[in-house]
Amino acid sequence: MLGASLLLAFREIRRHLLRSFLTVLGIVIGVAAVITMVTVGNGVTASVRNQISALGANTLMVIPNQQGRAAGSAPVRPFLIADVDAIREQVGGVKAISGQAQASVSAVHNGVKWTTTVSGTSDAGMDVQNLALTSGRRFTDGEESAGNAVCIVGATVRKNLFATEDPVGQQLRLNSISCSVIGVLKERGQGGGGNDQDDVVLMPLRAAQRQLIGNQNIYLIVIGVDPAYDNATVGADVERLLRERRHLGPDQDSDIRLIDVKQITDTVSSTIGVMTSLVAAIASISLVVGGIGIVNIMLVSVTERTREIGIRLAIGALAGEVRLQFLTEAVVLCSMGGAIGIALAFVLSFFLTQLMKVDFAMDPLVVVGSLGFASVLGVVFGYVPAQRAAALNPIEALRHE
Prior knowledge:
By secondary structure, the protein is of the alpha+beta class. The protein folds into two domains: 180 residues, no CATH class; 177 residues, no CATH class.
């Protein structure tokens, strides 16, 4: 009986193709909108996670606090190497730590000039920030302690200064000093703030401080936290130690700021997830609108086919069989609309993710769920017309013109 109902349903849909398509248009738009919004939202979330995680999954960053400082107040106090050493020795859960200092420089190679940023760091700092190399090597302990003029270039610097040449082993002039290129960083792309993370030259911290910056100040400390420890607990210990070293009393405002990268990642991902769900929920309203359209058209269909229904009932068809036929038509219509919507969503999602340069992350559960929900809509919104058809009086139906 179900097979016969399916054949009758497809026959009726084929007889009125344009009307059938217009009937399910709301379902098509609703399914496509929901899947597209969720897919794009997942892609944005994944891209943001990747960008923030480039700083390190379990990473704490400590910087001098500049917020809320009045004009003319004392300058921001930087950190010192001694502060970095104290955190390494006295705070539990610190897996790796590095002080960093930056300066804007003019980089020159073979007469080609490029303005970039030199970041003084260490081998431990590269571990914390997940900085990988495509060629060459990292800093040795001897180079870090002696402050040797060696450097590792980012992908953007390599492209603009070395073109197709291999930079490893060549000389690069930074302002007035010359350094040997020992490695090339793996491309990381655009950062969360829109900055180019590949437009950078890494040097040992001591070398950058002595030869480019001209002082021993540190304005950023990056800390890799052991996964077995809680970031918040380690952060509180770091802040407490630095307050003691900076002679801040209990009632004094802190002049340091601690940033938990993991907390930022979780917060941003959660916010994007909520916004994606909200947009998807709004888009799903069109599914309800499409369902109402199906009720309307199915009621019209019942009126048009009243005589046909009367003949079926008169020759022995049961009311349940008539009800099943119309329910089947409604489910087939909604399922076809869902299938078309999924295909449209795939195209739209792929186009939008490529345009926005984010990951294409279509969730199979959302796809299957949308198709299932569309089928359920067929049952829900098709029941009233189906019940109306089944309840027709055969004699009155046969008299219908």
